[in-house]
Design a protein that fits this description.
The complex is a heterodimer of chains A (about 150) and B (about 400). By secondary structure, chain A is mainly α. Chain A contains 5 helices and no strands. Chain A has a domain of about 80 residues. Helices cover about 65% and strands about 0% of the residues of chain A. The N terminus of chain A is likely disordered. Chain B is built from 15 helices and 14 strands. Chain B is globular, with a radius of gyration of 21 Å. The termini of chain B are close together. The mean pLDDT of chain B is about 90. The chains are: A mainly alpha (about 150), B alpha/beta (about 400).
């Protein structure tokens, strides 16, 4: 959210275009500041990927979200039970089961985390390389256009 | 000889008979208003209520309903496997042969009995209005009587709209009644459909008063809530709002509930379920109350030709929160000055926080929406557009 009031709704001459533009400008700034580099955002965005593909800076934003979501959380967690009857017993049972399963699944999940991390690094590397190549090509095109006298400005 | 002033509507389901759907509601309402203005209307539909099973659950036959004759015809047997396998290919953007397109249409929703009825009676009708565009029933009926067929296509920018058979449908029928300028432009881009062969009509909405506290009281809701009404399915974007609301609750710590009305399965993260209220298929009155009490009406679909429920939410005085890629819904929010549009989760979070934290501004947005719909979508205005479209596209022969 922006710190100052964006505009006064209901006043003559206002429109939602401006409101949305102001809110989006705030969001864009916060995205650059890393406010949304969050595993929860990456998870939430999974169904929106298809709609974001054509957006500028989408890949950079998504990779930033993904970086925080890439590792499976394999640490212990608080086991709760909503049922009133046998609650403590069920918690004890689940805790025992988790301890037993952890022994078998830890190796699997840690390998998965290694794979995820490597894939993530590879993706980031590819994106950086592509961005650098495109920037170099754009610079070259501008130089060639200038040299041939067909520049856009 | 004068052409008969009787018109037919063809629609795969009759809205309200246990069925909910925007296109169905649109066609039924146009038919009812035409009938109320003294036009003889036959509404031709199937015996199905569920858009998943298409099982014939209503009795076949004719029924007089609200001034029009509703004819129920059984849905034909079909090879669902063949239909789904071709549909999956189309949906994934794969190239499909014209024969497979036809196979897909034949194994979609069809009714030979309805076609036989029109073989006998088509000449009785000045025009046959059909929709939505992507059903076999619409396609075969329209191409059997192209000179009388007026499509109410409810066209979306989706893979099915890019099939060769659809180009033929739009080219050969007498005309189209679009719901919005954005839909007309899409038909122009996809099929080169000329503006002269179409009109923009849409659907009218009757103003209503709804108690904004009634729904929450009835369901014991004490926290603020956002609402989605309609079919729940991936194409409508319902999994997206579930994912967004889960992230919103986790990241902001705000207790905002997610309310659904309508039909279909809800695909939501397990942790969100205690904060979802699935009211199911509710009466119009209860839906309006749910809308009036919501912080925002969520409409995440990017494939809409007309956002009826969004306009209803505006009428209930509730602002909309729609996806920025939903061309028609964004244009409705802009025109009404009553809704915001999000590109991604960060936008959604910021906009929902804005609406929660600024109740006066939210109420002002709601008022603007209500005024806009009452002014632009009053039935008398829509009826005028509808009859003008009929006169332009299917003039009375003299």
């Amino acid at each position: 959210m922006s710190e100052s009031p964006i505009l006064s709704i209901g006043a003559p001459g206002i429109d939602v275009d401006r409101l949305v533009a102001d809110l989006q400008a705030t969001v864009d700034r916060k995205v650059r500041d890393g406010a949304y580099a969050d595993a929860r955002v990456a998870r939430a965005e999974k169904t929106n990927l298809v709609n974001l593909r054509g957006s500028d800076d989408f890949l950079t934003f998504y990779l930033a979200c993904l970086r925080d979501a890439v590792f499976v959380d394999i640490s212990d967690f608080e086991i709760r039970e909503r049922r009133r009857f046998f609650g403590p017993l069920l918690v004890a049972l689940k805790t025992t089961l988790w301890k037993l399963l952890k022994f078998y699944t830890y190796r699997l999940w840690s390998q998965q985390n290694q794979v995820n991390g490597l894939l993530m690094t590879a993706l980031e590397g590819m994106e950086e390389q592509s961005a650098a190549r495109i920037a170099a090509l754009e610079k070259r095109i501008v130089e060639l256009e200038k040299a041939s006298g067909h520049g856009r400005s | 000889m004068a052409a008969p002033d009787r018109i037919a509507f063809v629609c795969p389901r009759l809205a309200g008979e246990g069925a909910v759907g925007g296109a169905e509601t649109l066609l039924k309402n146009l038919a009812l208003h035409a009938a109320a203005r003294g036009v003889a209307v036959d509404f031709l539909t199937t015996c199905a209520q569920s858009h998943y099973t298409w099982e014939n659950t209503l009795p076949a036959g004719k029924k007089r309903m609200e001034g029009m004759d509703v004819h129920f015809f059984p849905v034909d047997d079909r090879d669902v496997g063949t239909f789904l396998s071709i549909q999956q290919s189309i949906d994934r953007g794969r190239s499909v042969s014209e024969s497979d397109e036809l196979l897909w249409l034949r194994n979609g929703v069809n009714s030979a009995a309805l076609l036989r009825h029109l073989e006998r009676h088509a000449a009785d009708y000045r025009a046959i209005l059909l929709g939505p565009y992507l059903f076999g029933l619409t396609w075969f009926t329209a191409l059997a009587h192209p000179e009388r067929a007026l499509l109410v296509p409810c066209l979306h920018d989706e893979p099915f709209a890019k099939l060769a058979c659809m180009k033929r449908l739009f080219a050969e029928t007498a005309g189209c009644l679009f719901n919005s300028q954005a839909e007309r432009e899409l038909a122009g881009e996809l099929f080169g459909h000329p503006d002269a062969k179409s009109s923009i009509v849409g659907m009218g909405l009757d103003p209503f008063e709804a108690d904004p506290t009634a729904f929450a009281k009835r369901h014991g809701l004490t926290a603020p809530y956002v609402l989605y009404s309609g079919r729940r399915e991936p194409l409508k974007g319902t999994p997206l709002i579930c994912d967004y609301m889960q992230a919103f609750r986790e990241r902001t710590g705000r207790d905002v509930k997610l309310v659904f009305t309508g039909s279909g399965n809800i695909d939501a993260p397990a942790a969100l379920w205690p904060h979802i209220l699935d009211a199911g298929f509710v009466s119009e009155e209860e839906k309006h109350e749910a809308m009036a009490g919501a912080v925002a009406f969520l409409h995440p679909s990017v494939n809409e030709s007309f956002g009826i429920v969004l306009l209803e939410a505006f009428l209930a005085g509730t602002p909309g929160l729609v996806h920025a890629k939903g061309r028609v819904l964004v244009s409705q929010c802009k025109a009404a000055g009553a809704g915001l549009w999000f590109r991604h989760y960060p936008d959604f979070e910021t906009q929902l926080l804005y609406l929660l934290d600024n109740p006066q501004e939210r109420a002002a947005l709601g008022r603007r929406g209500r005024d806009f719909v009452a002014r632009e979508y009053a039935w008398p205005a829509i009826e005028r557009k509808f009859f003008a479209a009929l006169d332009a596209l299917r003039p009375r022969a003299t």
